C-alpha cells in the first residue's frame, strides 16, 4: 500500500508589499540598499524570481515571507516596475505579482522665504498679532510639512505645502523689542531628500511712534512780506520716519506734499494770493510700517 502520493494542482499566490520602503519612495542615500519584499504561500525555501526594470535577482521564501535588498543607485529617477514569480514544490506557478508603485526620487528640493514679507518687510504694533510668513518650494509634494523657526517664538501653527507654496499667520506680539526678526525654514520631500535651509533676516518690527513737527519760527521770524510771498519755505523735522516717506501738508487750505530726508522735510510754496494774517499749516506723516505721527 502506498498513500504518500499527493495531487497538488492549485496555484500558489505571491504578493509584493505595499508600501515598500515605508512610503513607496527612496532617495539617493537609500538607493544603495532598497528592500523589495512580499508574501507567498508557495512554501519555505521556494525560490522567488524578482525583476526590477529588467534587472533580475532571486531570494527564498521563509515562513511565507520573502525579501531581498538591492542596490538601485544606477537606476534613473521615477517609478520602478517590479515583477515577482514563484513556483511551489509541485512546480505550480503563481500568478505573477506586479508593482509599479515604488519611486526613486533623488532630486534635491528647495525652499525659500518670500522677500519682502508683509509688503515691505516691516510690521507695526497693529499688525503684530498676525504676521504672514510665506514662501515657495521646488520638487516638494503637496502636504509636506514646513519646519519654520522664528527666534523667540514657540507656538507656530502647522504649515503644509500646496502647489509648491506655503503660508502661515503668526502672532509676534511676544517679540518685545523693535528690530530684525530672524526666520528659518526647512523641509524634506516624501523621499526624505532635505532642502537647503532658507534664511530670512530682513523682517523688521517697528512699533515706535513716529513724530513730525513744523519749524518755529518759519522764514526766520514767522513773518513774510509781499516780496517774499512767492517763495515761502515751510519746513520741519521728523523722528522714527524713514527717508523718502511722504509728508502731507495743508497750507492755507491747499494740499501740498514733500518727502522726508535725514529726519527733515521742506517745501517752497507761493502764497502771493493768500490774504494777510495768520496762515494755518498742518503736517502729517507715516513711517514705512504704516504708523501715523500725531498731526503737527
Class inferred from helices and paired strands = mainly beta
The average pLDDT value, as a whole number, equals 93
Order of helices and strands: EEEEEEEEEEEEEEEEEEEEEEE
Helix content: under 10%
Count of extended strands:
23
What low-confidence regions span 5 or more consecutive residues with pLDDT below 50? Answer: none
How far apart are the first and last residues' alpha carbons, in Å?
120 Å
Proportion of residues in β-strands: 35-45%
Strand order of the largest sheet: 5-4-8-9
- Describe the biggest sheet? 4 strands, antiparallel
Tally the helices: 0
Rg computed from alpha carbons, rounded to a whole number of angstroms = 37 Å
Shape: rod-shaped
Characterization of the model:
The chain is mostly beta strands. It has no helices and 23 strands. Strands 5-4-8-9 form a four-stranded antiparallel sheet, with no helix packed on it. It has a four-stranded mixed sheet with strand order 12-17-16-14, with no helix packed on it. A three-stranded antiparallel sheet has the order 1-3-6, with no helix packed on it. The chain is rod-shaped, with a radius of gyration of 37 Å. It starts with 13 loop residues before the first strand and ends in an 11-residue tail after the last strand. The model has no long low-confidence stretch (mean pLDDT 93).
Summarize the entry for a quick read.
By secondary structure, the protein is mostly beta strands. It is 0% helix and 40% strand.
Amino acid at each position: 500500500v502506498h498513500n504518500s502520493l499527493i495531487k497538488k494542482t492549485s496555484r500558489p499566490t505571491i504578493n509584493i508589499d505595499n508600501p515598500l520602503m515605508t512610503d513607496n519612495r527612496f532617495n539617493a542615500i537609500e538607493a544603495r540598499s532598497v528592500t523589495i519584499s512580499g508574501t507567498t504561500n508557495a512554501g519555505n525555501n521556494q525560490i522567488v524570481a524578482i525583476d526590477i526594470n529588467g534587472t533580475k535577482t532571486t531570494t527564498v521564501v521563509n515562513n511565507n515571507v520573502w525579501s531581498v535588498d538591492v542596490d538601485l543607485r544606477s537606476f534613473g529617477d521615477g517609478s520602478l516596475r517590479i515583477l515577482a514569480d514563484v513556483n511551489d514544490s509541485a512546480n505550480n506557478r503563481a500568478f505573477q505579482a506586479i508593482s509599479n508603485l515604488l519611486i526613486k526620487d533623488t532630486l534635491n528640493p528647495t525652499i525659500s522665504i518670500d522677500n519682502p514679507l508683509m509688503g515691505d518687510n516691516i510690521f507695526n504694533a497693529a499688525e503684530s498679532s498676525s504676521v504672514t510668513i510665506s514662501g515657495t518650494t521646488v520638487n516638494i509634494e503637496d502636504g509636506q510639512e514646513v519646519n519654520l523657526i522664528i527666534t523667540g517664538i514657540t507656538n507656530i501653527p502647522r504649515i503644509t505645502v500646496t502647489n509648491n507654496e506655503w503660508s502661515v499667520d503668526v502672532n509676534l506680539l511676544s517679540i518685545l523689542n523693535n528690530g530684525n526678526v530672524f526666520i528659518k525654514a526647512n523641509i524634506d520631500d516624501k523621499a526624505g531628500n532635505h532642502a537647503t535651509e532658507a534664511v530670512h533676516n530682513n523682517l523688521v518690527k517697528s512699533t515706535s511712534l513716529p513724530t513730525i513737527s513744523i519749524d518755529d519760527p518759519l522764514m526766520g521770524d514767522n513773518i513774510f512780506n509781499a516780496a517774499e510771498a512767492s517763495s515761502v519755505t515751510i519746513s520741519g523735522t521728523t523722528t522714527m520716519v524713514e527717508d523718502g516717506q511722504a509728508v502731507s501738508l495743508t497750507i492755507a487750505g491747499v494740499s501740498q506734499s514733500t518727502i522726508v530726508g535725514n529726519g527733515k522735510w521742506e517745501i517752497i510754496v507761493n502764497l502771493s494770493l493768500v490774504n494777510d494774517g495768520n496762515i494755518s499749516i498742518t503736517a502729517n506723516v507715516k513711517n514705512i510700517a504704516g504708523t501715523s505721527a500725531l498731526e503737527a
